[in-house]
Design goal:
By secondary structure, the protein is α/β, with parallel strands linked by helices. About 35% of the residues lie in helices and about 15% in strands. The chain has two domains: about 10-55, no CATH class; about 70-464, Aspartate Aminotransferase, domain 2, CATH 3.40.640.10. It has helices spanning about 40-55, 75-80, 95-110, 125-150, 165-175, 195-200, 220-235, 255, 325-360, 390-395, 430-450, and strands at about 120-125, 155-160, 180, 205-210, 240-245, 270-275, 285-290, 305, 310-315, 365-370, 375-380, 405, 415-420. Strand 8 (about 305) and strand 9 form a beta hairpin. The protein is globular, with a radius of gyration of 25 Å.
Length: about 475
């Protein structure tokens, strides 16, 4: 995030003394916006930062994030042992590259890659980078086809829904591709195959389909879109690839719904991304990108770098990448196996369904997504009140729960919803506590408003 310019401290009086255990070891003030003049004892520096970070929320109560917040001690040990290894240095750290290659093979097989396809893939620092790299390859493939056909290649477009992550909009802007964004409807929060058909043309580099949308956790109709594009190919000759954004579902669907066709079993699915640091059960940041066939990755996008003793092909937006999360992903895979992941996924899905029941029983909400495909539950107030979900979100924060409330995209932006991401540490017992806290919070808001009927006008989503 770009930081705002902050006034430079000029006087000792503008410097703040830090409270906490570190205070007993410190004799001088600590400047916040410039280098300190001298050094500090290690335990003082640690305690100062440790105390300040206590202001952050509790990751275990953060129901807003998909990101993994706990790993086993053995995984933590491996992470610590490999924190200092730069993954790009294959000559110095060849075994990490071997492990990455194993995981790429594992992920391709998990996504039902056909035997005839010579797949290729890579690790990334998250799904955002994986999306960028996947779509960039599709842009270059489209461009090369246009050049060979003697057609103009200055107006590429990409088709995706308003239900996608902001990474899709970023790609379109950063890489100069026209975004053809399919709006959601008042009572439908995903795209349709008909909408896609109306949006694509000969300049479309790819169609984006999301498994586990950011807003509601629902699935775009990947089978229907695939079938429509196959028919389009037969009737017009346009061969438009699908990129599946499975950031949230890539480590859920293969274990929970193995017979559900969404991956390389579908003809037009040419690339898939997922997040290892979500339901892959690894800390941030780690993502994976798999192409159906090596020819999907244009040779011109590969860089062969003779660096630190070996020539290395790279396809990345970052030259530096940590090795520790790749190692941690491999630990999870060999430690848990397919059955282990399946068991964890089923427990999360069970807890998500239990949460859905508890939410409904409160009598306050309409459930929009009852964890149909992934352990995400979204809901809204079923009737208007003198307070909203933003008020409820702030009230729940008093108990430590971090739960997002937000408005849906255009065409449904008058609808405010709340989303709970059920992760491994959100047990059935915690579901009971959370549901009870929601009930108490709503009743508290009702009582507060009865005592204070007049409220100040409010702008946006903040509390006035």
């Amino acid at each position: 995030m770009v930081s705002k310019k902050i006034k430079i401290e000029k006087m000792a009086g503008s410097q703040r003394k830090y409270a906490g255990n570190s205070n007993r070891f410190m004799d001088n003030d600590v400047p916040k916006y410039r280098f300190p003049e001298g050094r500090m004892e290690p335990r003082s520096a640690y305690q100062l930062i440790h105390d300040e970070l206590n202001l952050d929320g509790n990751p275990g109560l953060n129901l807003a994030t998909f990101v993994t917040t706990w790993m086993e001690p053995e995984a933590d040990k491996l992470i610590l042992e490999n924190l200092h290894k730069n993954f790009i240095d294959h000559f110095e750290y060849p075994q990490v590259e071997v492990i990455e290659e194993r995981i790429v093979n594992i992920m391709a097989n998990l996504y039902n890659i056909p035997d005839k396809d010579d797949f290729v893939g890579t690790s990334t620092i998250g799904s955002s980078e994986a999306i960028m790299l996947g779509l960039l390859a599709h842009k270059w493939n489209w461009k090369e086809k246009r050049i060979k056909a003697g057609k103009p290649f200055d107006r590429p477009n990409i088709v995706f829904g308003a239900d996608t992550h902001i990474s899709w909009d970023k790609f379109a802007r950063y890489f100069d591709v026209e975004p053809r964004i399919i709006p959601i409807a008042k009572n439908r929060y995903t795209i349709t195959a008909d909408d896609v058909r109306k949006s694509v043309d000969e300049n479309t580099i790819a169609v984006g389909v999301v498994l586990g949308t950011t807003f509601t956790g629902e699935f775009d109709p990947v089978v229907e879109v695939n079938n429509m594009l196959i028919e389009l190919k037969k009737t017009t000759g346009l061969d438009i690839p699908i990129h599946v954004d499975a950031a949230s579902a890539g480590f859920i669907t293969p274990f929970h719904e193995p017979d559900f066709p969404w991956d390389f079993r579908l003809e037009q699915v040419k690339s898939i991304n997922t997040s290892g640091h979500k339901y892959g059960l690894v800390y941030p940041g780690l993502g994976w990108l798999i192409f159906r066939n090596e020819k999907m990755l244009p040779e011109n996008l590969k860089f062969y770098v003779n660096y630190l003793g070996d020539e290395m092909p790279t396809y990345t937006l970052n030259f530096s990448e940590g090795s520790s999360m790749i190692v941690a992903q491999y630990y999870n895979i060999i430690r848990l196996g397919f059955e282990g992941y399946r068991s964890i996924v089923e427990k999360m899905m069970g807890n998500a369904h239990y949460l859905t029941e508890k939410i409904r029983k409160t009598g306050y909400f309409d459930v929009l997504n009852d964890a149909t495909h992934i352990p995400v539950v979204t809901f809204k107030f079923h009737e208007e009140k003198n307070f909203d979900l933003f008020d409820l979100s702030y009230k729940l924060r008093e108990r430590g729960w971090i739960v997002p409330a937000y408005s849906l995209p255009k065409n449904a932006d008058d609808t405010t919803i709340m989303r709970v991401v059920v992760r491994e540490n959100f047990t059935a017992d915690m579901v009971d506590i959370f549901a009870n806290d929601i009930d108490v919070a709503v009743k508290s808001l009702k009582v507060k408003l009865k005592k204070s009927p007049e409220r100040s006008p409010r702008q946006g989503h903040g509390v006035s």
